Structures are given as C-alpha cells and as structure tokens.
Amino acid sequence: MDSRKLALLTDFYELTMNQIFYENQDHNQRVVFDMFYRKNPFNGGYAVFAGLQQLIEYIKNLNFSPEDIEYLRNLNVFDDKFLNYLKDFKFTGTIYAVPEGTVVFPKEPLIRIEAPIIQAQIIESAILNIINHQTLIATKAARVKWAAKNDTVLEFGLRRAQGPDASVYGARAAIIGGCDGTSNVLAGKKFNIPVKGTHAHSMVMFYEDELTAFRRFAKKYPDSCLLLVDTYNTLKSGVPNAIKVFKEMRDANIKPRLYGIRLDSGDLAYLSKEARKMLDDAGFKDAVISASSDLDEYLIQELKIQGAKISVWGVGTKQITAKDDPALGGVYKLVQIQNGEKGIPKIKLSNNPEKITNPGKKKVYRIYDKKTNKIISDFITLDNEHLDENSTLTLYDETHRWKVKTLKSGTYKLKELLVPIFINGECVYKTPPVMEIRNHCQRELNTLWEEYKRLTNPEVMHVCLSDNLYNLKEKLIYESMNSK
Ligand SMILES: Nc1ncnc2c1ncn2[C@@H]1O[C@H](COP(=O)(O)OP(=O)(O)OP(=O)(O)O)[C@@H](O)[C@H]1O
Ligand SMILES: O=P(O)(O)OC[C@H]1O[C@H](OP(=O)(O)OP(=O)(O)O)[C@H](O)[C@@H]1O
Ligand SMILES: O=C(O)c1cccnc1
User: What is the ipTM of this complex?
Assistant: First the structure.
C-alpha cells in the first residue's frame, strides 16, 4: 500500500473552482464524471487499462495535512472558511472502473465517478495523471510482447524513464501489458514482480580481460548466465569467450538453468545468426541469444522478418518513455448533475464532433461472439438500461447510422465492463497481484482478433451507443445549439 500524501497533486484551478462551489454552498451537489480517452495510442487498435491500484491508494489517502493547509493559506487565495473545510476533507463518493489489464477502446467510460462536485473535481488531475501514464505504458508493452510472440521480454527502462515514479509505475504497467520481468529492483519489491538481468559492459572492462569477467559471472550465477558479448568484438572475442566458459561449465558438470549471450550493438540479425551457428556447432543448442539496443515493437517485428535468432528481448527507453507517442490523451468530463433521484445529463459541445461528449450516467457492455469468444463490439447504454442476451440486439455505427449489425439472441454474450471500486467512500475492490493482472491482460488480448492487434492500420473496434443514449445526445446537442 502506497501511503504517499498526494492531496496537493492537483491543478490549482481545481482548488480555485472548489472555493467557489464551497462559498456558494454548491459543494455537496452530486455529479457524475467520466474518464475516457479519444484516440488509441501508437495508432493502435486498443489500449490496456492500468493504474487503478494507484488511483485507489490515492483516494484512500486523500486528506490535507496541516502543512498542506498552511501552504495553501500562504498562497493568499483561499479564505479561512474554505481552508477549515479542507481540514476534514475526504472522499465519500462512488467510483466504478474497468479492472486493470482490460482491453479498452476510445470514447467509452473507463472510470465513472459519482460524488459531491467538490470531491469529484479535486481528483481530476491525479486520476488523469495516474491512469494516462500506466495505461500508455501497459499498451506499449502489449504491442512489444505481441511483436515478440512467444519470446521473453524484459523491461530495461529505469535509466531513461522520466524520473523515479515513471520508472517504478512504468515497470508495473509494462508487466501488466506482458513483459516477463523488469531490471527495476524497487518495482520488483513494491509489486512482487520478477526482477531479471544480465551484466553491463563495465564489468567486462573492469577485469583484465573479457574471459576473466565471463568466468567470474558464470561461476557466481550459473543458473542465470547471459554474457554480454559485444564489449570488444562480438564474433571474434565475445562469442568465442562465452563458448569457452560454457565448455568449462559443461566439463565441470554444471548445468545452467538459463545461459547464453546478450547482443547490444551492431547488426542484431546478422550477429544473432552467426552467434547461433557458433553456439550450435559447439553443442550449445539450448543457449539463449538475447538482445537489447533501442528496441521497440517495430524493430522486434523487423528483426524477426530478417530471421534473427533472438528469443529474449531487453526493451528499455522506447517502451518506458512511450517514445513514439508520449502521452495518452485521457480526459475527465462532467456528464450528469444529480437532482435528488433524477439526473440532469450534461453535454460538452465542440466544433470538432470527436470532442462532443456522451451525456448522462452510463455503463458499458462488452459483446462477445458466443462461438469464438472474440469481442464483436462495445455498447454504451444509459445506466438505467438493461441488455439481455436472449433478445435481438441492433448495433448502429454512431457516425454512419446506416451501418447496422444485428445480433440474434443466443449468438452473443454480454459482460459489463465497469465494476464497483468505491461505494459511498468505502473501498469495495481488492486489486489482484500484478502477475494475476498480467494473466488477465493476456486473456483479454486473446478476445481480440489479430486484425485489431497488428501494428499498422489495425481494424477499428466499434463502440456503439444505445438508441436511448444516441437520442439523448442528439436532443442535448440540438437544445444547446438553440439556447447558447
Ligand atoms: N538487423 C537490424 N535491422 C534493423 N535495425 C537494426 C538491426 N540491428 C541493429 N539495429 C538497430 O540499429 C541501430 C544502430 O545499432 P548500433 O549497435 O550500430 O549502434 P548503437 O546501438 O548506437 O551502438 P552502441 O550501443 O555501441 O552505441 C540500433 O537502434 C539497433 O537497434
Ligand atoms: O536501448 P534500450 O532499449 O534503452 O535498453 C537499455 C539499454 O541500456 C543499456 O545500455 P546503455 O543504453 O546504458 O548504454 P549503451 O547504449 O552504450 O549500450 C543496455 O545495454 C541497453 O542497450
Ligand atoms: O540487465 C541488463 O542486461 C540490463 C539492465 C538495464 C539496462 N540494460 C541492461
């Protein structure tokens, strides 16, 4: 449990708005917000939702310390009444969210918050910070693992992540997305995830020669012995010296569990093929060839096409920083104001139709083909609607209403995506261990056809609106355009 106090991890405007809500006695007005994103990262066909556990910890610890209050007082913006109110602040609302590791798509609510406006507003910035980061890295890792197929992928990004938090939570997200282990020891301890590694060039350079360094490493770590062979000359000294050490181990009857080499520069396809031949000829057919050096999903796919003989991939900078698409654009939008039992749905208009929000308190159904267990579509309804697998379901494309798909009863299965996390301030959700979330993610990815997972121009998953939601949206757009 992370007990960091992050109450001030909020944008200043959340507090200035909240002071107004408080002063006008509006602060207890219940509202509903949705968190969602509009475009899949990396031009991909999906995202992997991650970060919920850190969001839960943030909400549980959400209170202002006396020092926080003093700091705010010294800004000379907040009055005593509001600051006194903040002293006893805690979250009493209800949150529904998608479980971590779930495959998700643009525009569907991933988190639904129902709370007094003052609470719902203050948590916006932290929710987006936490979820945008981890969801982005988990998605990147899922793509990398997809490209690597059945190979092992190790997360090596610590030294290039944007600071300690991004490295630790990034490693967590990378494991959720499919990485098999991380070099980040703090992440290993915090989340009980496998820590793995080889050795650096410095060790080879430190000893009088490469062979001595390899011998020392092999002697100490015979169970996991990947020797870095590119410090001087990969094929002329690195691989021959590694083979020499493996022969010495064989002669001494030492049977390593995992042994082999790591390539870290040069033409990884060519070098891996040559090294494979040399290892095989020396009788080390089960020696592993691992590689690192600016890898990402595209290069791994490319190296496989080139016939590279690599089965363990160390992936650092490009994954931990999501280098080709460094921010997920998740947003947090007000969708309803409660008026007693009745909800007043709210919509945000925009000249850009993509940015018009889906109004009202909603839920999301995932529709699976009963035979294949693959996702057919996601379906957003108003909260008071109920779908039934035993009736015919008609799916309309939101922008092209003529694109219709009819699902006969009995041919599809339904699952609600949003599950309760907090009910009236009480946490009702127990996060599974990270390795279980990773398994869940693998099962989730299996519910997607390959067409949605390919790296370029993937199929677009349909996220449909129920008729009631569609009609409400049209009505509100029409009313807003005519009144403002
Ligand atoms: N067969 C290949 N096909 C495509 N790209 C490759 C192949 N082999 C290596 N690369 C990539 O080419 C780039 C250059 O590799 P190279 O090892 O020559 O330089 P480097 O990594 O900067 O070297 P160093 O780590 O010693 O500084 C790296 O991004 C590497 O991942
Ligand atoms: O390339 P990445 O995907 O970020 O993987 C991590 C890199 O970190 C290490 O070397 P470092 O980058 O410190 O030095 P090097 O580039 O000289 O090998 C390692 O040898 C990898 O090359
Ligand atoms: O263990 C490794 O091989 C490793 C760890 C961090 C970065 N590069 C490589």
Answer: 0.94
